[in-house]
Design goal:
Plastocyanin-like domain-containing protein; four-stranded mixed β-sheet; globular; Cu-oxidase_fam; alpha/beta; Immunoglobulin-like; Cu-oxidase_2nd; binds copper (II) ion; single chain; transmembrane helix
């Protein structure tokens, strides 16, 4: 051990360990699972959200960062959150699927997710993983390359997070129960959404959610709320 202080290889090892230590950051997020009222296409309903946001908060990080998300369930529903696309190396118990890697977070309870975005960069997303709560409980995870490391893709014209989803006027938990009871197919969605907005093509909907997508006109990455990352290219 005393040789360690004079050995070149020992100094190199120490510097690598030191560099790894300083180049990754731990990022903390506080997610409160809450109900809120929203109005879409002139009809109001209560949805489950995170921090009263629909879509939910964006997690921003850099490759190799550790993410810690404290989830407090303030709704009457059981829930979990799944980190879609995160590889979960040596942390599969924080992956999120209910009854598979964890028990649901019960009403009034807390759970802390802890995972590392090891060797991952790009745009991923998170969503609820209990029943149809994922219909309104979702958001993006943006993972930038480390400082000084170029992006593996061509530099985009503009960065814009686009989350595609479906929207039902009815309560989604009730819809799921009805589908299970009947054994039939679930009711089709009342609207497709971009970043939670149905856009102007639907009756009584004038919000500008789709305008952003129209304006882009360049290669962009989009996230679909069941798990595909696609590229949209102007035709
Ligand atoms: Cu998923």
């Amino acid at each position: 051990m005393s040789n360690c202080w004079i050995s070149y290889s020992c100094i190199l090892w120490l510097s690598i360990v030191f560099n790894l230590h300083v180049s990754a950051t731990t990022r903390f997020y506080d997610f409160k699972v809450q109900t809120m009222r929203i109005t879409k296409m002139c009809k109001s309903k209560q949805i489950v959200s995170i921090n009263q946001m629909f879509p939910g908060p964006v997690i921003y990080a850099q490759e190799d960062d550790q993410i810690i998300v404290k989830v407090t369930n303030e709704t009457p529903y059981n829930t979990t959150l799944h980190w879609h696309g995160v590889r979960q190396k040596l942390s599969c118990w924080y992956d999120g699927p209910s009854y598979i890697t964890q028990c649901p977070i019960l009403s009034g309870q807390k759970f802390v997710y802890k995972f590392t975005l090891e060797k991952q960069k790009g745009t991923l997303f998170w969503h609820a993983h209990v029943s149809w709560l994922r219909g309104t409980v979702y958001g993006a995870i943006v993972v930038y390359p480390k400082m000084g490391i170029p992006s593996p893709f061509r530099n985009p014209y503009k960065e814009q997070i686009i989350l595609l989803g479906e929207y039902w006027h009815k309560d989604v938990v009730q819809l799921e129960h009805e589908a299970l009871e009947s054994g039939g197919a679930p009711t089709p969605a009342d609207a497709f959404t971009i970043n939670g907005h149905p856009g102007p093509n639907y009756k009584c909907s004038s919000n500008n959610g789709n305008k952003n997508a129209k304006k882009l006109g360049k290669k962009i990455c989009a996230l679909y709320n069941v798990g595909f990352v696609v590229k949209l290219i102007k035709s």
